[in-house]
Amino acid sequence: MKDKLKDFFAHQFESKLIDEIVKVGKVKFYREGEHLMSVGDKISFFPFLLRGVFKVLSEDDAGNEVVLYFLERGDTCACVFINSLSEVKSCIRVVAETDSEVILIDVDHFDEWMVKYKSFRHYVLESYNLRLKEMIEAIDTLAFKKMDQRLLKYLHDKVQVLRVTTLNTTHQDIAYDLNTSRVVVSRLLKQLENEGKIKLKRNRIEIFDI
DNA sequence: ACATTAAGTGATT
DNA sequence: AATCACTTAATGT
Prior knowledge:
Number of helices: 8
Helix content: 40-55%
CATH class of the largest domain: Mainly Beta
Distance between the termini: 38 Å
Radius of gyration: 18 Å
CATH topology of the largest domain: Jelly Rolls
Number of strands: 10
């Protein structure tokens, strides 16, 4: 297991840092649908995603939720960084899209590593930048795009991160992720099917070109 | 065969 | 684009 981790980080971090990660990190498995973090959770660790896909959602008091972006191998949750420094509670929900493997590091190491390791600083700033970009993209689609375009982006993103052409999901689940109604999703999907872009079956969507 | 859940559709706001 | 009310289709027991 340790060698596996070393290989995983080898191109990213200096070896001393890798040793520390291996020493203090705890590897954890998440089943599809399990929460890595819920709204209101106190953040006591930060994650490196080793395998699998997570989706990051924003959720309000009324229970409305919207998918912001997906996380994949090598990613981390930048929202955590903001919160790592102070004792803030999570403003987002992170849910496993597939069975996943994560290495968790206690936030206590964060400050120290930021000072000690250049590669860590770079990694943090880079992923922060990346998440910010995705966040802006998410805001953009939410504010300016109509539902048909939002659905297209959703399907596109999902196919990309999961590296599949067939999604095993229901119209209702998509509706939850986009915070709209099932009927609307069904109609828009039907339209895409008529355009020859997808093929619909029960609990399944085959995607040809998006 | 029957019940349950997913998906399709017209009409209305 | 949302909601209602209803139908049809697929799937599990």
